[in-house]
Design a protein that fits this description.
With 108 residues, the protein is α+β, with helices and mostly antiparallel strands. It contains two helices and five strands; from the N terminus they run αβββαββ. Bound molecules: guanosine-5'-monophosphate and zinc ion.
């Protein structure tokens, strides 16, 4: 089982931010900003390449709820999903990084 599936099952502890039947948001163990949260579907999907429009639509609403919970919606944040080798994806369970809580440097 992948490490994020173990986090979903509470086999690996995590600092949870928000959870519903289908999605979980939890703090990244190695934060790259003052606020760094990962959002994952509870079903194991490897990457954005395997996402379906329906799950993506539900996940969009959930991520928006997470930004409200974190209190970052109006000030802004960065949403990232790394895909595959060239994208430097380390954990092969799709996740969106929410980086927030401070002025972020420009990437693109
Ligand atoms: P990726 O490089 O795959 O886009 O991001 C994987 C992220 O998962 C990294 O930011 C890393 O710090 C985080 N991570 C890896 N293992 C764990 C863990 O066991 N717990 C938590 N909370 N985050 C993890
Ligand atoms: Zn998984």
């Amino acid at each position: 089982m992948c490490i994020f599936c173990k986090i979903i099952d509470d086999e690996i502890p995590s600092k949870k931010v928000l959870e519903n039947e289908n999605f979980l948001a939890f703090e990244d163990i190695n934060p790259q900003a003052k606020i760094h949260v990962l959002v994952i579907p509870k079903v194991h999907i490897q990457s954005f390449n395997e996402m379906t429009p329906n799950i993506m639509a539900e996940m969009t609403s959930f991520i928006q709820e997470v930004t409200v919970t974190l209190g970052v919606k109006s000030d802004g944040y960065r949403l990232i999903t790394n895909i595959g080798q060239h994208g430097n994806q380390e954990v092969k369970h799709i996740h969106f990084h929410i980086l927030a809580g401070e002025q972020l440097g420009r990437l693109v």
